[in-house]
Amino acid sequence: ETAPPLLSVENIEVVYNDVILVLRGLSLTVPKGAIVALLGANGAGKSTTLKAISGLLRTEDGAVTRGGITYDGQPIHHLDPGAIVRRGIFQVMEGRRIVADMTCLENLRLGAHTRRDREIGDDIDRVYGYFPRLRERTGLAGYLSGGEQQMLAIGRALMARPKLILMDEPSMGLSPLLVKEVFGIIRQLNAELGLTILLVEQNARMALSCASYGYIMENGKVVLDGTAEALAANEDVKEFYLGGA
Ligand code: ATP
Description:
The protein has helices at 46-54, 81-87, 104-111, 121-130, 132-136, 146-159, 176-193, 204-210, 228-233, 235-241, and strands spanning 5-16, 20-31, 35-40, 62-71, 74-75, 89-92, 164-168, 196-201, 213-218, 221-227. It is α/β, with parallel strands linked by helices. The strands form two sheets. Strands 6-7-8-3-9-10 form a six-stranded mixed beta sheet, with helices on both faces. One of its GO terms (molecular function) is ATP binding.
């Protein structure tokens, strides 16, 4: 909690197509080196929040119409997605969005395209270190299993040497075993590389087990936030997000 915030979203309002108000005064903070979970039901505005941070909102005719987003002490909400990636923020999209008709290796190289240095061999080895299975897959990425595609999507993000990764539903479509594996790797990336992670998840239990802090969104704003332990112990959270357990 004492670390300075790497990312700070302050009271933002987001509108699609000039009319539909989707975020209504959303604020959150991600300290340097932390894993922070952003939870909430379908349609609460979680993906929209990530797109507002990564600048991808404008590709869908969305806009931040109020408030601001600060990263590493600088406002970023006016920057285009490429400039935001160059600052060190990388989004792993929901549905993975790997390039199906390229190989794993080509997808990984693509992840490094914004870097100035062309010395990416060590980075590719590092990604294969985290995801050994990807090294063995020499065919087109479109033929990978769902779990392998998720790993490739994360690996591709790592190639950009990000400081902050925005992850949209890494557990989506994965078997319980693979969910465990992917979350284990997320924890490892945080611990070993000091990577800061903002994690959007439907799987609240899994997200709170690896995050230190969490925010719960409803209807475009935060309705509850606290340490992961406090949220996991909260009766309302248990009832609505942890399946009554
Ligand atoms: P999910 O888990 O289903 O992705 P979410 O919490 O991520 O939900 P968002 O995808 O951010 O929610 O969507 C929030 C609201 O914004 C929804 O009501 C959705 O219909 C609307 N919305 C999302 N994208 C657009 C868009 N491109 N144009 C108009 N409305 C949109």
